[in-house]
Amino acid sequence: MFCSNCGKPLGDEAKFCPDCGTQMAAKKPAEALVETPVEVPVEVPVETPVEAPAKETVEAPAKETVEAPAKETVTVPPVASVEDVPARPKKKIGKKLLVAGIVAIALVVALVVSAFASPFMGNLLAKTLMSPKKYLQHVQKNSAEDFSKEFAAQLALIKNAYTVEPMGVHGNMTLTLGEGLKELIEAESAEAAMVTSWVDSVGMDLDAATDGSRVGMTGKLQLNGTDLMEGQFVFDFEDGMIYITVPEISGTAVGISLPSEFTYLFNNQAEMLEMVEQILAVIPSEEVMEKLICRYLDVVVGELSDVSRDAETVSAGGVTEKVTVLSAKISEKTLLNVAEAVMKELKDDEDVKDIIKGLSSISALGIDGDELYDDFRDGIEDVLEEIEEEEPSSKALFTLKVFVDSVGDIVGIGAKVADVKAEASFLALEKGSKQGLALKVDGPGVNVAFEGDSEVAGGKRNGTYSFKYDDMEIVTATLSNIDDEKWNAGLLDGTVTVSLSEEVENLLGYADAAEYLSGARLEMTGKQASQYEGEAEMALYLNNKLFLSMKAEATSTGNTTVTLPGNYVYGDSESELAAWLSEAEVDAGAIIDRFRSAGMPESMTALLEQSVASEEETMETEMMTGTVLDEDFLYR
């Protein structure tokens, strides 16, 4: 049944309406059961005719029954008029419902905003609503941040390369003779073949330290991995001396004056490093660089009067992408307008002012920052006056192209000169983990390209790039398992192979040379942990045979102490050097045994022993007869 006041459905036994509180009238027994549903409306206004399904008009007064088509009766609850129904009490909205509604609305707004703020949607919106010129200004600002970050990263690498700090390093360098080199030597000289038949490698094991003005090294000469002789060297650039100690000869060092060229070179190097550090300090920070790039690119684009927009599919290596191409025709007038606008901006640019005045901190230049800046502004005034006197042509010289990807990043730039049919372009495309690169120059008499792609998977980069001339492949560079993070930091962890193409013989024109070089390649493998730690190997192959390889290893020791020898003889004094030689004791037999351990044939070690014995007899004879010490004796 229903409430007679508010019409809310109620249970059959309900005495009060739970919604409005109205008391229900007692039901008659005959009105309690309705077995068959009726097809007429139950809530019928008082004295309102109701049309039954059988098209019979039924008058339903209050509290009277309405006869259904099946001749069954149903009690119709009394219905009051609108005026008689009291106002329904207003229900208060629950706090939980209110919070849930606010959160739902916030989520919807966030989703909409994030969609339009995403690179793709943001770029699509900008490209749709902006003119080609405004869109070009928009994308160049987006790319300025990436460029400034890359600039800062490269600047950091330069700073590391030119920063010399006290350090200690243990290293080993080994030079290995390959089959190709041995065959070449043996074909040229039979005597040399006697050496190459058993010599495989020559190396140096080295401990080095530097404290700024001094460099100390202890090196062991190695043959086929066997230590032959040890030497200690200390370079004192401040005093212009080098101290040499050879334990196999004497425990006393020999001090020799460094040639003036060495001292001059060291002093110049020190001054150069200091100047480089001062220059690097003047170079603007990443934030300032980004502002400058945005500012002046905006000035340049603002002077472009003819910018159009097209869609184009471009390729770089194995990466193909549909891009937006923004083209601007550049004339003499455009170039002068750009120059004038840039000069006017430079004239009052505070960031540029700070950079120019900062040059006064470079001691080698010996300039006054204020004077330099005044000269700079005067120079701008002169240029602006010259521009005003020019009458430039409006004829287009070339068309500048800017390639923009789907998220609004500039991925390439190009220029096309219609009159001479010349075109140059640079593209750096990215699709997923794959990156393509293409640098092309095509014009009358010249057609060169450097193109390829690489892919990063699991932090390792693999790819191939090639250099072509007139569509002929000349050189190919292959990246194998390169640690991408270290690669971006200027370190090599992986293998880089540079190979000459077989087609190079067509370029050389010499059949013999081309055949010998057709399999030429240079492999560079590194495993660098830092700038001063790691290992690296370079191997040169000719005609697919190892020609020569060099391997170097280095680890940091933390030892930065360079100690001058406790006692030494002055090597520039002939008498002191003669006295040192007379006291020297060389164990030639021990040295020959080391050669024997290194693999020297017995026939050669026997010759060495005979030569040493003969030399010792000659020296004894000359000393006994009082022979005057001459230059030949000193260096014998």
What would a concise description of this structure say?
With 636 residues, this protein is α+β, with helices and mostly antiparallel strands. The strands form 3 sheets. The chain has a 20-stranded mixed sheet.
What does this entry look like structurally?
- By secondary structure, the protein is α+β, with helices and mostly antiparallel strands.
- Helix content is 36%, strand content 31%.
- The protein is built from 17 helices and 24 strands.
- The strands form 3 sheets. The chain has a 20-stranded mixed β-sheet. It has a two-stranded antiparallel ribbon with strand order 1-2.
- A hairpin with a 2-residue loop joins strand 15 (422-431) and strand 16.
- Helix 4 (179-188) packs antiparallel against helix 5 and helix 8 (332-347) packs antiparallel against helix 10 (369-389).
- It is elongated.
- Residues 28-76, 79-83 and 111-117 have low confidence and may be disordered.
Which secondary structure elements does this structure contain, and how are they paired or packed?
Blueprint: E1 49-51, E2 57-59, E3 65-67, E4 73-75, H1 95-117, H2 119-129, H3 132-161, E5 167-177, H4 179-188, H5 190-196, E6 201-210, E7 214-223, E8 226-236, E9 241-245, E10 253-257, H6 260-282, H7 286-302, E11 307-316, E12 319-331, H8 332-347, H9 350-358, H10 369-389, E13 396-404, E14 410-417, E15 422-431, E16 434-443, E17 446-457, E18 460-469, E19 472-483, H11 484-488, E20 493-500, H12 504-508, H13 511-517, E21 521-528, E22 534-542, E23 545-556, E24 568-570, H14 574-583, H15 588-597, H16 602-624, H17 631-634
